[in-house]
Write a structure and sequence with these properties.
By secondary structure, the chain is mainly alpha-helical. The chain has a single domain (about 20-175), classed as Amidase signature (AS) enzymes, CATH 3.90.1300.10. The chain has helices at about 35-50, 65-80, 85-90, 95-105, 110-130, 170-175, and strands at about 20-25, 55-60, 135, 155, 160. Helix 2 packs across helix 5 (about 110-130) and helix 2 (about 65-80) packs across helix 6. The longest helix is centred in the middle third of the chain and has 21 residues, at about 110-130. The radius of gyration is 19 Å and the shape is globular.
Length: about 180
């Protein structure tokens, strides 16, 4: 995708044979805070799909460390990208940008090394997982829409979240693995 391509090349694709697909289903990847409403809708939707698949079972790779890995890498990215802004006018930065930047300053070399070591382990875990499955289906979001003025939900079903990105645990975990992800409404 990093080179020019003709969009017409993508229009003539062979139909997929769903009856051969091995599909893992997970409402939360085993750790992501996911609202009960999203869980109910997800279960209803995948129930309609399951009869057409070779394998459709609840399973997920072990991504329990992905939130921490994602947070450390995110903080490092903010440290690199916001240095000048932070030095010249940190009061104008959003609280979330300041939080990421300041937490990056508190990371030790060991914290960073551990995050990168664990990131490699996450990649290996996903490779192992996809030896058994062709597709992993998860909800596209963990919460129902919320007012844009809130910026992010502070809790899911009454359980307070640790960080402002915790509500996007599914997205962050899968992005951290570096694998292709498609979100469908």
């Amino acid at each position: 995708m990093s080179y020019p391509s003709d969009p017409e090349d993508f229009l003539d694709t062979a139909p997929a044979d769903l009856s051969k697909l091995r599909v893992a289903l997970s409402p939360d990847l085993g750790f992501a805070p996911t609202s009960q409403m999203i869980r109910r809708v997800f279960a209803a939707r995948v129930a309609k799909l399951q009869p057409y698949l070779a394998v459709a079972e609840e399973d997920q790779p072990d991504l329990t460390t992905a939130a921490r890995v994602n947070w450390v890498i995110r903080c490092l990215q903010y440290l690199g990208s916001q240095k000048t802004h932070y030095a010249e006018h940190k009061e104008k930065l959003s609280p979330n940008v300041r939080l990421n930047y300041e937490q990056a300053l508190e990371l030790s070399v060991e914290d960073v090394a551990e995050a990168f070591r664990e990131n490699g382990a996450l990649h290996r875990e996903v490779d192992r997982f996809f030896g058994d499955y062709d597709v992993l289906i998860v909800p596209g979001a963990t919460v129902t829409p919320f007012p844009k003025e809130d910026h992010y939900p502070k809790a899911v079903d009454g359980v307070e979240l640790e960080t402002y990105v915790a509500w996007a645990g599914l997205t962050n975990a899968l992005s951290t693995t570096g694998n292709p992800v498609v979100a469908l409404p």
